[in-house]
Amino acid sequence: MSLDPIDNDPQLQRWRLVLGEAGQAALAGGRLAGAAAAQDAALEWLYGRDEELRRRGVRPAGREGGDGPSIVTTVDWLDEITRLFPKETVERLERDAVERYEIHDVVTDPAVLARIEPNESLLRAVLRTKHLMNPEVLRQARRIVETVVRQLLERLATDVRRAFTGTRARTPSRFRLARDFDVRRTLRANLGRYRPEERKLYIESAHFFSRTRRHIERWQLILLVDQSGSMTGSVIHSAVTAACLWGLPGLRTHLVAFDTEIADLTADVDDPVELLMKVQLGGGTDIGRAVAYGTQLIEQPRRTIVALISDFYEGGNETRLVRLVAALVEQGTKVLCLAALDEQADPVYDRAMAQRLADTGAAVGAMTPGELAAFVAEQVGR
């Protein structure tokens, strides 16, 4: 029987895994063994490459292996973490691998792609690295794009339907539709007709909800999406949002991606997978040029919403950008300047430029796709 205290103390093992090799000195010579040693090796394979910790002396320049199996390739590592950790931990490790340490073979190696479970982090990595992929790898990577986009569409479609089809109001209606049957009000109104001996309630008057439905007239929604590397999440959700809004009665949706060049992707809005495979992330940013292009698409200024989705770090002429946004506001166009359009809505952006845009009368902030759909529905239904 082992007398090593770390073997019989799960909490001590967890702290050792969190601290890595740097925590070994606090364990009085005790060492991890078995599954815990294998977990430590898997974590060290990833986080051991953190140069900042090495510079601070938190992690040694070299590390002796434990009792766990040797981890050599990314494929081996993925197999190991899937075996050793719960799903939530695996997803976090994969996300750190592709986003924090830029281990590109996670999404460019066919053997890795065949093993990995699609998620949003991997989708972002595919979009950043697809220019490195040969045609065969790109076909496999497309599976990740298709799977994650389908999941996002299913989640957002519910919010869009709710926003645009209206909700039942707690007011009477003379239209007797089964779907609008008001159970509670009907029961209260007919309680005097309950027959205890028969255990039946006889309904003399049935009640129904009224259903409010927004009257939709012809509007335009113009999404101008910054495709610089920091905006990858917003690019993905903009494509999915545009696909959900595409074809709604009374609404014409445009999707324009930009860096220093303009790419009008409206023709592919109904196929967000194909659209995302065409996006080219990175490069400089000329936001003013994108706003000028969007202005040319407007048919009726007072029935148009322009959503500028960017971190507002303008690489072009800042004064021109502010002037263009101010002109849109003055002509009655609804202008949204969104520093993020994704499910977290937690942006990093140029606050000084955002304030200048807000001073023109534009609405500045961050939204989830569902919140944007609700905003569009409110405007269109007025």
UniProtKB/TrEMBL annotation:
Pfam families per the UniProt record, alphabetical: VWA_CoxE (PF05762)
Protein's UniProt name: VWA domain-containing protein
Annotated organism of origin: Dactylosporangium salmoneum
Alphabetical list of InterPro entries matching this protein: LolB, Uncharacterised_CoxE, VWF_A, vWFA_dom_sf
Cross-referenced CDD domains: VWA_YIEM_type
Domain VWFA: 218-377
